[in-house]
Amino acid sequence: MAEPTVFRxxxxxxxxxxxxANDDVSFAVRPGEIHALLGENGAGKSTLVKMIYGLVRxxxxxxxxxxxxxxxxDPRAARAAGxxxxxQHFSLFDALTVAENIALGMENPPPRRELxxxxxxxxxxxxxxxxxxxRIVTLSAGERQRVEIIRCLLQNPxxxxxxxxxxxxxxxxxxxxxxxxxxxxxxxTAILYISHKLEEIRAHCDRATxxxxxxxxxxxxxxxxxxxxxxxxxxxxxxxxxxxxxRQAGEVLLEVRGLSMPAPDAEGTALKxxxxxxxxGEILGIGGVAGNGQEELLAALSGxxxxxxxxxxxxxxxxxxxxxxxxxxxxxxxxxxDRLGHAAVPDFSLIENTxxxxxxRKGLVRRGLIDHAAAxxxxxxVIRDFDVRTPGPHVAARxxxxxxxxKFVIGREVMQSPRVLVxxxxxWGVDAGAAAAxxxxxxxxxxxxxxxxxxxxxxxxLLELSDRFCALNEGRLxxxxxxEGLTLDRIGLMLGGAHGMEEARI
Amino acid sequence: MMIDxxxxxxxxxxxxxxxxxxxxxELVVERAGVLNLGVEGMMITGALAGFGAAYSTGxxxxxxxxxxxxxxxxxxxxxxxxxxxxxxQVASGLALxxxxxxxAAMLGKPFEGVRAPAMPAGPxxxxxxxxxxxxxxxxxxxxxxxxxxxxxxxxxxxxxxAAHALGYNIRLTRLAAIAFGGAMAGVGGAxxxxxxxxxxxxxxxxxxxxxxxxxxxxxxxxxxxxxxGAWLFxxxxxxxxxxxxxxxxxxxxxxxxxxxxxxIIVLVAISARQKFSxxxxxxxxxxxxxxxxxxx
Lengths: 506, 296
Known about the structure:
The complex is a heterodimer. Chain A is an alpha/beta fold. Chain A has 16 helices and 23 strands. In chain A, the strands form 5 sheets. In chain A, strands 13, 16, 19, 20, 21, 22 and 23 form a 7-stranded mixed beta sheet that branches. In chain A, strand 4 and strand 5 form a beta hairpin. In chain A, helix 13 runs parallel beside helix 14. Chain B has a domain of about 200 residues. The N and C termini of chain B lie far apart (about 70 Å). At the A-B interface, helix 2 and helix 3 of A face helix 6 and helix 7 of B.
């Protein structure tokens, strides 16, 4: 090989019991390159980068960093060799300060005062201002990510791995992140960038390696392909076209007026004077960066938290003081974000999980007794109609993959024919095929005359599904705008812009 | 009624020392994310081992050393269960307490009715071990907040997933913390048998281990808070003894209850404050009481 590489993998393989996570994976990252690693959930991206970072050991194959063999036995060895990583789920310590968090990610941190000065300096240079004495709990998601990035930058890495870094950022914040990455790349750092946001990768990455079922299926220049092509490579077949036709807005179903609520706990967000109307056959999209009141809004609509009289009205019936069960009976259903633990009980079977929300509307409970046959039939119907891949309805919810459980959770609500359905993050962490199925089921539900509210952080999803769009920012809901002709840029501004980030100065 | 503040304070120092040691040890254990409910069992083990060694050799200081080793040794039983076999921490801790109490009662028979050797008084005629306990407070604080090892220990207790992702050894850190907690509980227990009661009786720690656990919560997981909690408890204990001696017309049982009642009231007050104040959370370590298993 004549071309210099920063990192090279040759024939990497890794198996877990019952799963071949990686199989004969080879690729190379050149200096100054932003290299995308693309693939569906479960395609083996995370396992691969964990091996590079020393968290997991490969079963076979070899890795090279700067042409020297790279076989770190733990992350500290990987860091010493020049690999840094920003994790998908933040690897931060909430109760500790910014400086302490950064010190933990370094091999030989300087004394406290010197470290604080260097953090201030570097964060300023890269346009990511940070106060080293702040505790992590007090920081926003965007600020937390800055901490992770600064922690990496202070080590002058040769290879920087970023695992889905933009999922918690507004489009403007993501732009600034890429400006920073581009500058780093120009300074010679190679960047390995994991994402499934295709447009983002097309706009910013120099090369893409696409994984499917643990194997490399394609290595290409993402700018030379359309997002549709890239998706087809990821999935290994054509994507289903979403059908939006045949819907028209009818009478007003749900009306929310002056809904205010204090934050449920120290990390929560207070809802401030929320107002919205939802018509039959309409899909209202609510966008926003995580932690701006999404969960609180869902709780207020589903009935987990009661609100002042007159704030939540379903077709002239005031439901403000009612709990989830009366609201379900009235036709207001909800599917929360967290599949395991909130929408479904992990250790309950699928049959038992149907009883939790469909008991009353589907007549699965009579005089306080469970009609087991009816519950089983309903669970089977959801499994059949929503193509949930499971050995049977007796399987525990936690045994299903994320996509399959999500299809089940959404299906359980949709098949109760609600008048209004509220969903939060309906396709979060779900593979592309299941996501398309979930989205289509929401559109079909609206076509049959129900009102649907989709709360999501995936802006492409909101643009695809919704008729009108509202932004949720620090617990306030913007007035709705028609989705027709709305651009990502405009949405970004509605979501509060860049939250105080600045352009890198080096 | 004759209650001289200085003498009450000196008595308070003595009464608070066993729980101060045990609670400081448990503080470090809990900051590493481990909930060891076996403090009582480790204390009684230390009380017996320390007394036995001091009586046999005639050297009380050797007794405390042996007590520390015995406490650490028996804590390794808990460590093996929870860190190697990933057993439930609450159940394992309770088992350790019951096991320690039973074992000490059985092995302690030969030492019943004999007297501990006299201890030389330390500076200001205050016991050396009392001084050691007072020195341990800033030492533990300094270790937790100012050293790299302390930072790693807190990181492990706060979020073991993230600490593992950064390459720190969760199991080793927790084993070390548990051993330290065991040694401290052992010394605390030995203080009761060697320096306070001067003899061995079955079950002589009388719930001090449970009070130590409560004081760690009371302290909001800080070393100065542990000292305050230990002194509060020690103070109430001494006061009720004084009131009894002075013949106050209150049933003895009520007075004996007072320290425990005070602990309950303070704990309720603390959690009420945390519930109604809008400030961020409690000081409880994020991973407290949960086991960690890494997939490699």
